[in-house]
């Protein structure tokens, strides 16, 4: 008789799940920091953490969808800024907020579609293409803004007005975008085809998937998420500058990878990516609570990013 292959227990399966591990790590950090400083676990601080990750959380969803599809976009931070600049210009010309929001959403989709079209048609490496378009979008924002701070005069204050002294609508926007990404990637034919595209582009093509069209669609959707992130950013800060998107692409990439999304494509979950973003938010808030020097925080963030990339490639290292 052939030896029976032992199946891993339920406990081992759970511990192999990146989402479970992240939830445990987050819980441990919360307990430890709360013992050191009880203010960390206060309702106000918990809400503050979610408010701080609103923009990053939405951009992480965009980056995760792209990574799962086999792509990447280093221009998402500057797409967000261009959308904000467009909204400012529209408002400054006497148009209502609704028109400005629509203009921002269209701009985001257009920027994403441009990225997708160039990548799909040229078959060039997405990292290099989006590095170039990132500079282009930054240049556009810098030219239009003239390098000055663009103030919105409270036009989007409704998104940060607290309900019951705690909850603000921008948190609802974050949750809606996370839920939208989750449903799209987990329960729709589009999402399944995006996963297939990221897993093996050649097989996806042979199975009848229009690779070019799907790549363009994924980048357009990513651009839409960037536009929504821009709306939330403006609501929080009430202004925008040409360099406001700096580091958002690397932080979103790190959050997605920490959450189990890999560079290989076709792997990872939206839930894991969100937990990765939440972990970064908790760590950042904890360092502020503990009074860690800003420069040291930058070093720690860099270590987290490097560690996340190494961990995402650990399976490839083992194979070799």
TrEMBL record:
Its main location: membrane. It holds the Pfam family BPD_transp_2. Keywords: Cell inner membrane, Cell membrane, Membrane, Transmembrane, Transmembrane helix, Transport. It comes from the Bacteria. The keyword Cell membrane applies. It is found in: Cell membrane. It is a multi-pass membrane protein. PANTHER family: ABC TRANSPORTER PERMEASE PROTEIN YPHD-RELATED-RELATED, AUTOINDUCER 2 IMPORT SYSTEM PERMEASE PROTEIN LSRD. This is Autoinducer 2 import system permease protein LsrD. It comes from Ruthenibacterium intestinale.
């Amino acid at each position: 008789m052939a030896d029976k292959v032992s199946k891993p227990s339920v406990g081992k399966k759970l511990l192999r799940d990146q989402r479970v591990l992240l939830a445990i790590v987050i819980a441990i950090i919360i307990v430890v920091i709360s013992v050191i400083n009880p203010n960390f676990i206060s309702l106000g601080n918990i809400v503050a953490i979610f408010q701080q990750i609103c923009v990053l959380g939405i951009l992480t969803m965009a980056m995760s969808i792209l990574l799962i599809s086999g792509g990447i976009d280093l221009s998402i931070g500057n797409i967000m800024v261009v959308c904000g600049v467009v909204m400012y210009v529209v408002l400054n010309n006497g148009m209502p907020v609704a028109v400005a929001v629509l203009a921002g959403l269209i701009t985001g989709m257009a920027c994403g579609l441009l990225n997708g079209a160039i990548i799909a048609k040229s078959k060039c490496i997405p990292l290099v293409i989006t590095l170039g378009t990132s500079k282009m979008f930054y240049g556009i924002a810098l030219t239009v803004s003239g390098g000055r701070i663009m103030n919105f005069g409270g036009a989007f204050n409704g998104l940060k007005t607290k309900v019951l002294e705690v909850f603000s609508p921008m948190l609802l926007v974050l949750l809606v975008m996370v839920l939208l990404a989750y449903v799209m990637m987990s329960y729709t034919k589009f999402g399944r085809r995006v996963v297939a595209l990221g897993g093996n582009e050649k097989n996806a093509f042979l199975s009848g998937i229009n690779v070019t069209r799907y790549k363009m669609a994924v980048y357009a959707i990513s651009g839409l998420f960037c536009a929504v992130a821009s709306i939330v950013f403006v609501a929080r800060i009430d202004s925008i500058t040409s360099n406001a998107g700096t580091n958002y692409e690397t932080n979103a990439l790190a959050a997605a990878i920490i959450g189990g999304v890999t560079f290989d494509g076709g792997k990872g979950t939206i839930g894991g990516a969100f937990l990765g973003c939440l972990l970064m938010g908790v760590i950042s808030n904890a360092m502020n609570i503990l009074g860690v020097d800003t420069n040291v925080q930058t070093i720690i963030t860099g270590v987290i990013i490097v560690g996340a990339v190494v961990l995402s490639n650990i399976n490839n290292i083992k194979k070799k």
